[in-house]
Amino acid sequence: MEKTILRILAGTELSSDLSQILQELLPEYQVEEFAEQPDYQQSIRRRIHSLHDAFYFLLDAYPPDLSHTNITLATLKEFIDEIKNNSLQQKGIGEEWHKELEQFAAILVGCISLFWRWPGSETERLKQAVACLNEAEQYHLMRQGRSNTATLIPFDFGKGPEYLLQWDEALPAYYEEWLNELQCIIDQDFPPSPEWFLILKKAEQAYLCHLDGFFPTVQELIEDLSALQITLAQAKAQAHHWHGDLEYISKGTLPLKEWFNQLSTAKKELVKILSNTPERIEEELSAFVSYLSEQRSRATFQEELNSITRIPQWYLFLSFPQQCFLKQVLNHTEDIKSVVSFLSSRHRTLPAPANFGAHQIMRINRTGEVIPLSEKRYRSSHVVSRDVIHAQLPEMIQRRHSDFNLKQVMRYAKPQQKILFQTLISPLSLLEFADYMPAGLSNIPPDWHLYHNACATVARSDYASRVYKHNHPYNIVKYYNYTHAKNTDSLELISATQERIAQLEQLRLLAENNASTPMVQKEQQELEQLLQDYQEVLDSSIFDTHCRELFLSSLEQLIILTQNGYSYGSCVSGKDRKAIELMHTDALLIYKERYGQWPKLTDVAEARALFVSIVAELYLSRHQHTLAGQNAPGSEGIKTPESYLPGDICEEIKQRRKDSKSLDFDDRLATDNEVKAIVGDWQKAVIPETMLHAMLVTRQIGEYRCMQLYDALYLLLNQKHLFQIKGAAGFRSFFEPSYPAGIETIKCLMKDKAAGDNNIARIAQIISIVATRPNEQSNRSDATKQVYNALKKLLTPMSAMGTTLEDYVDQVVATWRSLYEESKGVKEALKEGKSEATTPTKEISWSSHF
After folding, report:
1. Residue-level pLDDT at 740
2. Domains of the chain: which residue ranges?
3. Taking the CB of residue 674, how many other CB atoms lie within 10 A of it?
4. Do 689 and 122 touch, CB atoms closer than 8 A?
5. Which single residue of 54, 87, 486, 548 could bond 104 by disulfide (Cβ 3.0 to 4.6 Å)?
6. Phi then psi for 690, rounded to 5 degrees?
7. Conformation bin of residue 658: beta by default, left when phi > 0, alpha when psi is -120 to 50
8. What's the rounded Cα separation, in Å, for the pair 483 and 549?
9. What whole-number distance in Å separates Cα of residue 222 and Cα of residue 281?
């Protein structure tokens, strides 16, 4: 059983009776106190700790190849630990705390970009590094699991001090089919996806993935596809409307031709995708056969082909880093269930529901009676994964995700129970605004595919006949894609509720003196009132001030709950908009319990103020914020609450907190859930790769050797004549001395007291300066070349040095000191006019030193 965290307001004393009640309700709970005012600095610290843990998980699961550098893993860890500790010790207010998080995240991403050797430009490497850290944190959180969470707050129901208990139960993401697949992956020792498979066309991938555990030889595949070519040729010859037949197949429109129905599953999937381009179907098949014919001579091809038929399809489409992360999680546990029970809201590449749980609000009265104000309401991230859609994975993989996600979030629904499937996304088709994009909509993620894929998932499920699906956008889209009075989904719910009311009326008349009559009558009256309120809100203007879509979503919840239905809801993540709906619906339930009637959208004055106060009370308890933080420790906030909540509720929250920016801070914390959103401009925030590399090299060298290097270079640079740029004839110009820009920059840095507190920092900057200089310049003096080459070599692998980093630095120091002494001797000889130094062009033998 998962442990339960019981949150209570600091200073609250639990009586022995209340403790006993809570112990029965929440076995083995652990008390955690929270303050009236949120501790934003502590949230930032938690976020830093979590990113640090994710980085260490990355090091273990997918370690970098450091052979291209002089850096050791120990040096990298020490560097990250020091940066983390410095970040945690900083003091400040508001935005200053967040800058520490930004800087720490930028350091982590910079290191991942530098040492994991991603392909592409520096910008592309940064994007991959951000994604890698984000994914590493997802898997690290998955193996940790999460606790059940309860929040106890005092509340006056008009009969003296009582309590409200907000209770969220963490529900398992896993199901039997997925556990079996994970065990299969373990048994096969986590094979990486063959590169050739990943670059196949979608139709070819679908064919290979649907061989259903059959391990054919390459020759058998070629024969199978050749037979398909013959079948298609015959079908085409006999068809009256060949393109029409293929269109039916591509769309799955019934009836399908008999020749297609007789095909194997693999060939059906292949033909279905190829049917989208009927004019190329023969060409595509021939190309696939040719490809297999070419590959069969490769020694490993048959074994790789066999592995594809053994491994679950979704695993094949995970990136290699994610395959490594999954391996790390599963290889370090004896109980698979314990490490896959929870997927954070961002974790959408595995075929299981993320952020899955059940919510309930309860009253604990003065006599100790626990009164649930409603049945459980189930929540998760959207059943359709935005990540899977954006990756353009094959349709079979997309369906695999959404079908099983839906099945899992519906697992607690009872037979014949009415189901509310409510989403809170923004299904705005950009095609609607192809020529004009209204202000404020350009940054709204288009959730059109999410919405329609979810509808299709429900339609092909076993629950389709009893699901009432609804969607309500809470952001600016509510003014463009609002729920109108004739909305089909709303009319279906109204019709079903009217039928239920009629049934209740008949039951009441048939059993007038039955003991159940009061319950029947109560349900009937409640439904009649809620249905009337719902229709009034549907008929209202979209330009209200109390958030019409929010009110509609809460009323739908109440209508289903009153009929003992199954309530399920989500937004994209299940932690922001869904949290707002849960609080709003809870407030409606509490208001009804306290005042004996339902609040209305049109309430004003005292009635509205009482409702606003309840919502604010729930918001300020930060129960939903705490749940949000479980998806990314430190992100205990609600995104854009001022877009989702009515203005009067927002003002009430700010006044109670005595902070006009409090909701902005909540939005900021919630935004930090995604690693990519922590920093606004990663290009500017991340230390340039050369500088970061230099910082780590000098850290590895150590302060003592950096001091020796710095002192030797300082003395050598004072021999100005050694670094003068050569004239056109190849001789130094003593009359008009000119020095290389890099040397001048280094000398300026050495004079700058603010250039670094220690020699490690100063030498790192010097290496960075030198690394940006051109490799070759014809007018560069031998001394300049030697200094540049010696410092640049510090950024090369040890194998290129032929010695250890420490020994190499010692050699450089000894050389520079020797050159300095030799140069000083030449200058003194020139000054004294000795015969062996009569020429001002006397050269030092640089080649003898290296």
Report:
1. 87
2. 4-34+145-173+341-645, 192-310, 689-728+735-829
3. 16
4. yes
5. 87
6. -65, -45
7. left
8. 7
9. 16
Least Cα distance to 184 among 307, 304, 266, 62 occurs for 307
Record: fold of 192-310: Peroxidase; domain 1 (1.10.520)
Query: Structure tokens of 254?
Result: 């019934």
Nearest Cα to 497, choosing from 470, 469, 464, 532? 532
Q: Which helix (H) or strand (E) holds 415?
A: none
User: What is residue 510's predicted lDDT score, i.e. its pLDDT?
Assistant: 79
Give the chain's length: 850
Cut 0.85: pTM above it: yes
Under the phi-then-psi rule, with left for phi > 0, alpha for psi from -120 to 50, and beta for the rest, what region is 194?
Answer: beta
Query: Residue-wise over 718-736: b if at least 16 C-beta within 10 A, else e?
Result: ebeebbbbbeeeeebeeee
- Rounding to the nearest 10 degrees, give the CA dihedral for residues 276, 281, 287, 288: 70
Angle between helices 40-61 and 662-671 (to 10 degrees): 0
DSSP summary character for residue 4:
E
Instruction: Note the pLDDT of residue 847.
Output: 45
SS3 170: strand
> What's the distance, Cα to Cα, between the start and end of the chain in Å?
68
In this structure, the strands spanning 357-364 and 370-372 are antiparallel
Cα–Cα nearest to 167, from 1, 371, 364, 6: 6
The whole-number pLDDT of residue 35 equals 94
